[in-house]
Amino acid sequence: GTTYIHYQGHTIDTEKMSIFTVRELFARDGIELDNYTLNEERFIFETEQILFGGASAVGRNGTPADYIRLSQLTKEDLFFKYFMERIERRLGFDKPAVAKDYPIEMCTLSNKCSYSDLYGERFEIYIAGIEIANGFGELNDPAAQAKSFYDTLEFRNSSGKEPIVFPERFIHSLKYGMPPSAGIALGLERLLMLLTDTADINDLSLFDFARYN
Fold this sequence. Notes:
There is one protein chain. This protein is of the alpha+beta class. It has seven helices and eight strands. Strands 3, 4, 5, 6, 7 and 8 form a six-stranded mixed sheet that branches. Strand 6 and strand 7 form a beta hairpin. Helix 3 (40-52) crosses helix 4. It is globular, with a radius of gyration of 20 Å.
């Protein structure tokens, strides 16, 4: 009967909301997220220094050109490791938080943001450090969708991944016109965790698939 969620000692006011771009969240530690797309080496340099240790990560001249890699992680791996360890667990403890506008490489099926081609209209909602929803503005341009799929097919073929079929019917349907749309996936068990103050999702059985096997 209230608008508050009481979870693990925290009180979250669901009538309020914080909204951050992912670029803003990375900038808190001095990481320029534009470099995820524009300068991969610089992004790796900045994230590895924070995740794995400062001075030891720099060569003689203290520049990325002399950088000694501290891990074998890809830039995508580093993005998610940083996000999970430095950002995600701090979001939404007084009110729900939205992290929006992810690097476009991570959401090629979404619209590009109006202010920058480097980012796409993907967003995630967090409460008490838990991601409860993930969505994006749907890319409804058939030519852009086709190019995205062709790029994906080329990448999978060149990297030896299992081939996928080009979605002819989907692209054909887009050509008839699709209005501006958005989609979102909500984690029902995660939401139930919050509403019942349950610390471990394994203690819930909202979807007990084993029962039907």
